[in-house]
Amino acid sequence: MKTILIMRHGEAIPMQANDAARNLTEKGHAEAEKMGLWLQKHFTVDALLVSPYSRALQTAQEVEKNNVFKFSETCSDIIPEGKPQIAADYLETLIATHPQCNTWLVVAHMPIVSYIVDQLSPGNMPIFNTAAIAVIQYDETSQRSEYVNINAPANI
């Protein structure tokens, strides 16, 4: 059994012409750091898959301050307008090819984070507050997932 953690980036500056370049706000950095500490307390995160957008990369950097990853990759399939089926399939492929990694963290954006949860665990499509993390248990043998819960900075 593997654990998949799907995380939305922390609060970012308002929309601008270059969406990919939007940075985290001060609050967004604090949210990401708080969730990084929460992750450290509850999981041993082995692997990171992160969107190439600035706010997702900054969120991952805050999380990484308190966690050490055996595997890390930037993935253009998990951008806001990405295709959730492709993203979920790619994640499952990575899990299969890196058996040493038991807990995977995906840092991305709305709406794709909700759609990825639904792809992995049909019928579950949570709405993510900034820096929220959905927990999914994944059986790599049967390729079946169970949505467990979602945790947000305000609730921990």
UniProtKB/TrEMBL annotation:
One CC-aspect GO term: cytoplasm
Highest taxon listed in the record's lineage: Bacteria
SMART domains: PGAM (SM00855)
GO molecular function: protein histidine phosphatase activity
Coiled coil: none
InterPro entries reported in the protein's UniProt record: His_Pase_superF_clade-1 (IPR013078), His_PPase_superfam (IPR029033), SixA (IPR004449)
Name used for this protein in its record: Phosphohistidine phosphatase SixA
